[in-house]
Design brief:
Blueprint: H1 6-17, H2 25-44, H3 52-55, E1 59-62, H4 85-94, E2 99-105, H5 128-139, E3 143-147
Parallel strand pairs: 1-2, 2-3
Helix pairs in contact: 1-2, 4-5
Amino acid sequence: MLHESRAERHLRSFKRRLPGRGVSIACLVTMAALARMRSLSAETAGPADSPWFERCLVGMEVGPTGAQFGHSDKDDARYAARFDGAEIVRRCVAASSEYVVIWARDGDYAYYDSEVALKCPGLGSRDVLRQTVEEARKHRLPVIAYCVV
């Protein structure tokens, strides 16, 4: 495409990487904004040998929703049953995110194997924080564990 913008190239690339998955308008708008922020990041980023937090501008915060409002049912195994740290990282990488903020604990639950906080019932034996860190390591993607205290 002759006069395709960087955002348009990024969106086309994103669609190619996720074949068979529907891409909503909201997702496309988000990807366009992310592409623009990426271009700004490249213009203002520090040297490659600087710490990640000085050179990374575009990141994603990901976590389940609902429990932070105190309306969760500790016996509902459906809540966060599909919360998958490795899949989150793969999608962040596909979206060119430079780091990920993963919810490790909200007002009600821990999303990792905690010795103190109640673990989210939908996780079973899974540890979302561990999944996230292990997959992110493969992509050299910095991870911030977000915890509500």
